[in-house]
Amino acid sequence: MDVEQAEAALVEHYPRLVRLAYLILPPSLGRGRRVLTAHALAQRALPRSRQVTAEGLLPGQRDAQGGGGGSAGYAYVRLRVLRAALEANQPLSPRSRPRRAQFPAPLPRVWGLRLAPRAGGPDELALHEELSALSPAARAAFVLRGLDRLDEAQAAEILACAGVPEPRAALTEAAGVRVPGGVHAAALLASPEFDPCSLQARPTDLLRRRQHVRAALLGAAALAVCGALLVSWTVGGPEAPAYSPAQRAALDPARLTTAPAAAWRSSARQDFSVWPARGSLVGDRALLGRALAAWAAPGGSVQVSATPGTQTGGPAGPPKLLFAGRTPRANVVLLYDGLRIARYAEPAGQNDGAVALDLVRVDGADAGTSSALVVERTDGNVRYLVAPWVRGVASRDLRVPGRAPQKLELAPDGTTGPFHAPASQGECTSWNTLETTDRDGTKRLYTDLGELAPAHVTAGAPAAPKEVASASARSAWAPSACALGAARTQGVRAVNSWEYARQVLPEAAGTARWTCTRMDTWRGPGSHSLAAFQAPGGASAAVVAQGEDAAACGARAPEVLAGALWKSPAGSWFLLAAGSAGVESIATSGDLEGSSPTRLLALPAHQGDQARLTGALSGGGRITPLG
User: What angle do CA 167, 169, 170 make, to 5 degrees?
Assistant: First the structure.
């Protein structure tokens, strides 16, 4: 194949090749830089020599139209573009030789303009977020299959030729992309959102350009002025995307919505939608604008975190303002878009460091799960903003049920005084929680699990959990409090502890308690259940079984069964097991054979014995231990 054949393929399929490079390049480059880099990679795909060796080239592939895209020339330049785009995703390392694609392209260059593809609709934005979360190889696999309509074997062969070490793994990851219902991936990939050849041109900051020119003429003394101007850029930076009219409306501080101060009193629902806007900075348009811009297009100085299952894209419309105020170390903004809470925090003075953007989904919140949000967490202390229906707050140690709560100051803007949050590491000697008292006297308990929305703590049978407001409920929770550490940063919405059985131990050793702790998430999947055994006199319960995404110990399937080997004070070993009230009998097999006609089992055993437990339910059916 000669160079003219490759050039003809490049010219004929140039838009498709540029689109392929644009989709594979790292999203962190920003839309403007990705456009120019994609064009540069496509233009550099032309071979330098007059003759191209056919060795290693793939056989021609059929394109979406079934035509010329399958030529050897197109296969060659496509492979060159694919290799360069994958190399551009690799970080520079002193241990490896740098590649040309890892550096900014000197050409093409556009001065004084920002170029970006036209903004797409919600389906395109959703697909862009899905692709951003993929590895470079998986993005390449998805684009080859969707854009060039290649089957799995063809895509794997091309990825291998491009240097991808595990093409099948990349294809498997790409297959997990969730395309919006009713829309084909090829149609979305062919939309204007991902077309770097059909662009919108917008000027860069004209006033700032003029200031930079003047500053350059002043010499070295004016460099300090230039630096001050640079740090005053918006969070999106010069590569901020071109927004549609709807997106611009969502980012306009003047269009933020607020709830009337007394809306929660007459509303049929109690959740974040009826929180009024509070804080001393609710009128600071500049601060609110920076918060909205950071949410829509976080720049490199924005540290973004999100709970599992929470989308990080900007709001679809003007969100609701819940809070804008000062804390001792930062200016904080809390926003709500009906699905998520966004917390924006910038250091006092705005120039002292990076800003933070935290996101958590709160869809389906009720009065029990919308009473508090974290405003600030520093030096091991946490400060909350509470709902307008809360009239009092206190800190209560869940590990010491008999200790009186420590009253916290509640400011007029709804923020609490700081108190020590539960330690994430080390020995669990205490577990501080937030206790709220509503205006109708209802008390609720919340625990900080390292996220923006604290988890609601309840106790009792899964079908009808109750608030932890009595001494007995707090005493039941105390042995299991430290188990809450297993749910940190998992997007937990509510935690319930249930004492499902008590068992008189052999050799007159007292009465043991069996509890089940279930942690449900905002997203639905990802629940975590723990069965624990507490021997008499023990300060903490020992976890003996746990399950992920298990229905047991929940409202849909409240029954639970668990067992453990126990050593008596006299040194004898026993197999103990207990089921909830719906378990009629228990049987065991393996190293130990035996059964019990009740929901409690105790058999003599030896250290290290292995046994399989099964239980019969009173309504028919079988149950196995949690796990």
Answer: 65
Looking at the DSSP bridge assignments, the partners of residue 517 are 497, 530
Residue 34's nearest CA partner among 199, 205, 178 is 199
Residue where the block lists tokens 């197999």: 575
Task: Map tokens 């000062």 to a residue.
Answer: 326
pLDDT tens across 310-323, in order?
Answer: 998 889 889 999 99
According to DSSP, residue 360 is labeled: E
Taking CA atoms, 624 is separated from 284, 501, 616, in Å, by 58, 16, 9
How much is the pLDDT for 47? 77
b vs e for 390-426, b when ≥16 Cβ sit within 10 Å of the residue's Cβ?
bebbbbbbbbebeeebeebebeeebbbebbebbeeee
pLDDT of residue 215: 62
In angstroms, the CA 272 to CA 373 distance is: 10
- Helices 72-88 and 136-147 meet at what angle, rounded to 10? 150
What gap in Å lies between CA 390 and CA 446, rounded to an integer?
13
DSSP 51-111: B---TTPPPP---TTSSGGGSHHHHHHHHHHHHHHHHHTSPP-TTS---GGGS--SSS--S
Per the document, the length of the chain is 627
User: Residue 498 to residues 10, 24, 66, 78, 521: CA-CA distances in angstroms?
Assistant: 67, 50, 63, 60, 18
What is the β-pairing status of strands 622-623 and 340-347?
unpaired
Q: Which pLDDT does position 257 carry in this prediction?
A: 93
Cross-strand pairs, 309: none
Half-sphere exposure of 5 (CA within 13 A, CB side): 16
The crossing angle, in degrees rounded to 10, of helices 72-88 and 31-43 is 140
Among left, alpha and beta (phi > 0; psi -120 to 50; other), residue 297 is: beta
pTM value is: 0.62
Pair 432, 419: CB distance under 8 Å: yes
Asked which of 63-77, 157-171, 370-384 is least confident by mean pLDDT, the reply is: 63-77
Cα 253 from Cα 276, distance rounded (Å):
16
Q: What's the gap between Cα 23 and its chain centre?
A: 23
Integer angstrom CA distances of residue 436 from 375, 442, 606: 16, 8, 48
> Per-residue pLDDT tens for 146-198?
888 899 999 999 999 998 999 999 999 999 888 876 667 888 888 888 888 88
Phi/psi zone of residue 354: left (φ > 0), alpha (ψ -120 to 50 degrees), beta?
Answer: beta
Q: How far apart are alpha carbons 215 and 208 in whole angstroms? A: 10
Rounded to whole angstroms, the maximal C-alpha distance in the chain is 94
Give the helix, strand, coil percentages of the chain, each rounded to 5.
Answer: 30, 30, 40
User: Is residue 67's pLDDT more than 80?
Assistant: no
**Of the candidates 325, 255, 326, which has an alpha carbon nearest to the alpha carbon of residue 292?**
255
